[in-house]
Each structure stands twice: as C-alpha cells, then as structure tokens.
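Teaching assistant here, posting this on the class forum so everyone can see the example we discussed in section. The complex has two components, and the goal was to see what a joint structure prediction looks like when all of them are supplied at once.
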Amino acid sequence: MSQKNYAPIGVFDSGVGGLTVAREIMRNLPNEKIVYFGDTARVPYGNKSREAVLRYSRQIIRFLMTQDVKAIVVACNTASAMALETIREEINIPIIGVVKPGARVAAQVTRNHKIGVIGTRATINSCIYKEFIQRQNPEIEVIGKACPLLVPLVEEGWLKDAVTVEVARRYLEPLLRQDIDTLILGCTHYPLLRSVMRELVGEKVRLVNPAYETAKDLQRLLEERGLASPGKEEAEFPYRFYASDSVQQFKDFANSILPYDVGMTKQITIEEY
Amino acid sequence: MSQKNYAPIGVFDSGVGGLTVAREIMRNLPNEKIVYFGDTARVPYGNKSREAVLRYSRQIIRFLMTQDVKAIVVACNTASAMALETIREEINIPIIGVVKPGARVAAQVTRNHKIGVIGTRATINSCIYKEFIQRQNPEIEVIGKACPLLVPLVEEGWLKDAVTVEVARRYLEPLLRQDIDTLILGCTHYPLLRSVMRELVGEKVRLVNPAYETAKDLQRLLEERGLASPGKEEAEFPYRFYASDSVQQFKDFANSILPYDVGMTKQITIEEY
C-alpha cells in the first residue's frame, strides 16, 4: 500500500455526459477521489475526425497526468471508440473506456441474442458496440438506432417530460418491433432517461447502463493492480471538476445530476497541454 | 459591366443552416451563381471562443477567394456576431452578415416596440440582436429566448411534427405573454419552422426572417456597387456546395430544403486554407 493508492481517478468526456460515469464511480467506489475533465469548448466529438479526437484525448491525458491520477476512465463513447486503443500504448497507468464493459455485459445477459443499442449518430454509425459484442459472440444480432434528439432533451433538463417520452417512444419502436431482449444505453446522457426507457420497454427488456458497468470494471481493475484506496482520505475537494469552456453551465448541469453540490470547478486552456 | 459581374456569391455557415440563406438568394437573385461552404466538421460555432470563430472564418474566406467570389454572405449568426466587423477590414470585396438586416427590419416594423428574438443559446447570450436593434431605436424592448431543441428537431427532419409544435409552443409562450408584436427567427434553421411559428403566434405578430432580409440587402449592395449579374449565364453548376466533413448528410439535408437536387458537392480540408 503506497501513497499512490490515495491518488485520484482521472475521468474525461467531450462534455457533461461523462458525469453519469463519475456518478457511478462515486456511488460504487466511495473511497476514490476523482478529477473530471469535460471538453465543453470542443463538444461534440461525434462529428470530428479520428485524428482530431486522438489529438484532443492526448491533450486531456497530459492534463490529467499533471493531476497525478492513478488510472483513467474515458467516459466518452466517441473517444473510447476512436482513441483508447492507441493511447493505451502510450501511457503507463491503467485506462478503460465505456464501450467494452457495456458490450460485454449485454452479450452475457441476452437470451434471444437480439441486442438493441441506442446512441448518438456518430456512435451508431461507428458500429463499435456491434464490433465488441460480436467479438464475444458472433451469433448475436445487434440493432443500432441513432437518437439525436435525446442529448439536447437531457441538456434542456426535460428528463421526465411528455415530449421526451414521445420522442423516446418513436426511437425505440423499431427496436421493440424487432424483439430485442436487451437494450444498451450507448450514450453517457441516457442513464438520466432510465425511468423513461424502463416505462417504454417494459420489464422484459434488460437495460444495460455502460456507466455502471464501467465503474464495476474500474473497481476490479484497481483491486487487481493493488491500486484501490483503502479508505476515505480527508481532502478539501475529493471531486474536482475542470472544463475547457465557461464553467457556469457545466456547474448547473453537474449540480442537477450529482448527489451533492459541486465544490471545485475550474476552466482551463486545454490546448496548452 | 465586366466579367466580375458573372462571378459567384460566396456564402458560408458553420453547417447546413445557412442553406436557408442560400435558398433566399436563389429565389430573389436568380441570375446569381453561388459557392456555399458549410463547416460541418467544426459545427457548432456557438460554443467556441471569439478567437476560434475568427480563425475559422478567415480560413473559409481564403477558400472562397480561391473561387473568385465577388461578394460574401456570412450566413451564420455566430460568425456574423463575432467575426464580421474584423474581417470586413481585411478583404477588398463586399461582405454582409445575417444579423443586421433582420434587426433593421424588425426595428422598422414593430408598432408597440416589443420585439422577441429566438435563437441558439450562444446567439441569445451574445445579445447581438438587441444591440443592433437598440442602435436603431433605444426605446425598443428586445426579449430574447434561447431555443436549443429547435435545431436538432429541424436536423431530424421533424418539420411539421406534433413534437416540434409542442416544443416551439413552450419556447414562445413567455414571449407572447410579454405581448411582442414582432418575432425575429434568429437562427438560420428556423425559417424551416415558419409555418409552425405562424400557427403558434397568430396573425398579429410579424415574423422577421433574416435569411430573406439578407438576400434583399445583398441585392441592393450588388446593384449599388455595379456588381449584379445582368442575366443567367450558362454554367454546368451555378450552385456549388463544399463542406469540411463527409458530404452525404449535407447533401440529404440540402436536397430536402432546396427547390432542386443539389448537383456539385465536395468535401475539402478547410484547415489548409
């Protein structure tokens, strides 16, 4: 057990969506400190080239390294798909993304081998969930559906609104018609719509929340590597939040979804890293 | 009358929204050729810094100059607000934006001096319409309302959908309660929701479409400077479209709103300009 065990976890996303992943880490690994970075000035990553996403991710990782993190969670579907494998070769601390944990669990729980995946247009077009699921079991049919209106609805705060229910109903209809028994919430914003989704798909469809599965994978990883924190250490700000654009909007959103008021938030110039 | 009169108009936007401005130019100035550039790889501009928007705009203008345009229309509210005045000093051809024409007409037509403006969060927070309107008449009250869900609804193609009507109704309600008699459609996507807006605001509220007013301003400008095209010149592609990301989605959207099928579309690397 060394000082390293008390070091924070670095978590990053293109914006605020990854806060749902941070939230699961807070809930499931309460002893761990977190440094979160949201690239709010360059959001969204979904329409950027692989080169751009890789360049941005490298800058963010250099910044997180200055915060002495002991492990990194890529809480962004696009960066997990486009940059994670390359970056893993370049750094000497553990790093995990959100796609593989969700895909693995979905492949394990499906009975009829029909899995639905909802996400942004970029995530669905990348077929990244399909690729990871079929690596587990090539027999599984994976049906993707892009839901471009759901992120703006969440960011507008209309979480349990009739409009949101109607929009989600239309997106899910073709998946349910194809008889899926498992649905991956393949965008970090979607866990905030979990109760809407549950109502629409009924009890028979298993909902897979990659944010939760990622926190569980992180827990296993820290234990295997002897990196888990043995207990809560006193710290003024166990959770620190950084963003590349003005923090006010970030703070409002974070306070609306996290179980406590966000203390330390700071804007940084990420291009300098 | 010189060869210059037959040169095309350069029109640019952060994405596809500026096509509504191109459409008004096609309708009102049918003799003019157009080169359109949509910065689809870097959309949206609304959350970017002034420096970034200025840098992007300069790159685009350098590209348009290689196409020998005779005048430039900044068909993007953010770039009109953040970059237009600076760029005007740097180039030797006429350039106009979308904000001033709409603001001028709204200030002229209001009777009760209460104007509503709807737009993206960035446009409304910039207060650019308010600034231009109150330069005309400081007595006018300008009430802004950010409508972040409307662009994704338009891009999803839900133009006359019940969901869109309900969302727009909620956004317009506080403006109507404040008794506006004029409403500026302060985002290039919104003219596509004109019939929805008309239904919601009734006949008493005057709708101002900056895309149309910009086309009329361009017409006056070309005539004043002796730059108007005297007639339709035979050209394989009188309207040419360029984008900084894959053109398929751009083409689909363009074909859905323009009065004919888009012929020439091409992806270019805008960072090289």
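For the discussion questions: Chain A touches chain B through 17 residues (CB under 8 Å). Chain A has a mean pLDDT of 94. Think about how each of these relates to the inputs above.
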